[in-house]
Amino acid sequence: MGGCEAGVGTFMRWHVRVTVPALKQLAAIKDTRIKEGISRRINALEYDPDKQGKPMTDDLAGYRSIRAVGQRYRILYRVETEQVIVVVVALGIRKEGSKTDVYALAKKLARLGLLESE
Fold this sequence. Notes:
The chain is α+β, with helices and mostly antiparallel strands.
């Protein structure tokens, strides 16, 4: 999903890498239109990922979150400026208070040291 290319002016294309857990989360979504929408949003991270989404806090500090597919889904990612890489680590539905909430899942994976799994 991408590469790194210097373009005209300050244009830069980032390499986007999706972790295995995030790929599994994407594969678990049955609706093809939703998968395609999420994939398009992930691909859009090739351009100015540090200006998209919002920075996370607390257990997810260092990560950013963007909305996708009708604002229901979230994509969590980390920007590695030294390597010009965007690492997508989790995605799913935002459902505050639910154990299946993407942020709750990401926090649990972070506590277990599994958020960065290849």
